[in-house]
Amino acid sequence: MADIRSWSTTAASNNATPPDGWPEGMAPSTVNNTARETHRAIKKQWSQAEWFSHGDDVATSTIRKDGQTISLSGTHTATYHIGRRIRALDTVPTWLYGTITDVSFSTGTQVSVAWDTGSLTATVTAVELAILSQTNQSLPQLNKTITSHDAGATAAPDLTLFRDSASPADADFGGRVLFDGRDSAGSQVTYGSMDVQFDDVTDASEDASLLIKTQTAGTLTTQVDLSSAAMAVTPVITASGGMDGILGANTPAAGTLTSATLTGSLYRSFTDNVTAGTTQTQAGATALTTDTNRVTVSGTDGDGVALFTAVANARILVINDDAAQTIQIWPASSDTIDGGAADAVDANSLAAGNSREYLALDATNWVTVTNPVVAAGLASGDVIPADDGAVGAPGLTFKDDTDNGIYRIGANNIAVAAAGAKVADFHAGGEISFPLQPDVMVFGDAQANVTGAGTAQTLTWGGSEIRDQGSNFASDVFTAPVTGTYDGLLHFCFSGVTSGMTRCIINMTTSNRTIPLARYDIYATTARDTPAGQGRLPMAFTMDMDASDTLTNIICTIVGGSDVVDISASSYLSITKRV
């Protein structure tokens, strides 16, 4: 006899040829066989009572549409729904087990399944559903309370969703809670869910993420991703008490946000088009409820608004955008402004076109924070409330270039940063330094008997290096770090000049050109020195250099006599960039 799935709920229809049915006038010889087959079919069903075939797979009504989808003929809205467990017989005798994730009834019944392992590969020969379903009235309704009578202090009762995997792996998903409903077409839709993902399953260092999802334009989208390292929130955060309600002020029960990384914009709560109260009293002043308020109507000079009740660290900004009238600002009942009497109006009215910010010192007292109108410029004595900052994050900087700006090093000492590096340093005494500008001073080597008979001698600089700001001088070569004009001084010291020596020629070689520095009657220059034959020649020079241009050598040639002239180690070379 065929299995129960082929039986009919109409008794007269169970009349197939024995032993598959009980037709009228069946031969006595077939009764025993049919009865035995009936017993077999019932026993088979009860031996796997958690699964039941509704007969949807009889004959050729069931086909494999793809690896995750089964197509059934007919519309089966009562039995197939999202979340129900299902199994299908794929390659005999292999059963695939899974959970229904979507059902469409537009053409027959299209059932999408998330299989526990594998996917459909062949023709489906059998489909069975778990007996638990949304329409199974043998189960209690889910809108019930789970109660624990444990009088202890530990958490109870517990609801455990246990993913008992024999091979857990990083990025596996665990238990899931679905919030389903129907859409306008009658289809079952998951409108929200809570999912847990196992980020790290290593023993003793486990990490996980909690994902909260909601439908967004027809797609189930992660809105909150809470992991062990951070929390990512996709939609705009709105706080009824203003953003201070999140950041730690404006509400007595507010928490403190110690660290936040923002990829979008952070907005303060804002009320626009406020009309100032006309009674010009605290009681009649328009009560402000958000932390940014734009007053656009003040019928008469002196009309007013009132701050909300002070909460320590709360801030409130009042903007007077009326065309001409001033407004008065009162505290809330029993509060004060700038040390005045309780309930007293701010001694300074707010002129049209100006704004003012107040800071609550505690639960009673407000103080004014100056907010000059940018369009009118800063007045004498106005203060820009900037932090000191540092070279990598200046106190005064630019929204799109935050490592450029001005920062404070210490008392009466400020600096300018560019690309996170200090480029200028200013002191109260008038000292100004440019730490990235080249500044070189080196002493030369002593060289004996090196010129005098027209021999060209290259000066070398292996003596003491007094300074090399920027490290631009190495191996007797100066390299320009940036394009510009460079000023230099060569102090040439020598001895051993004789009367037969007539000229001293000094040339300097750079990437762009050879620069003549000096042509001297060398003996006439030294004859008046004591002892005769020695002297020093200071020579200033200017170089026009591009970035990476070099000064490669300085050559001295003395004509006449023989090579008896010594070059002194007192010779030195200095180079700076003109600012």
End-to-end Cα distance: 104 Å
- Alpha-carbon Rg, integer: 45 Å
> Major beta sheet, specifics?
7 strands, antiparallel
Low-confidence stretches: 241-256
- At CATH level 2, the architecture of the largest domain is Sandwich
**Structural classification:** mainly beta
Instruction: Please give the count of helices.
Output: 3
Would you state the CATH class of the largest domain? Mainly Beta
Bin the strand percentage. 35-45%
Q: For the residues shown, what is the average pLDDT? A: 85
Number of structural units classed as domains = 6
Walk me through the structure.
This protein has 579 residues and is mostly beta strands. It has six domains: 4-47, no CATH class; 52-130, Elongation Factor Tu (Ef-tu), domain 3, CATH 2.40.30.170; 172-233; 270-376, Jelly Rolls (Sandwich); 389-433, no CATH class; 439-577, Jelly Rolls, CATH 2.60.120. Helix content is 5%, strand content 41%. Strand 5 and strand 6 (109-115) form a beta hairpin. The model is unreliable at 241-256 (pLDDT under 50).
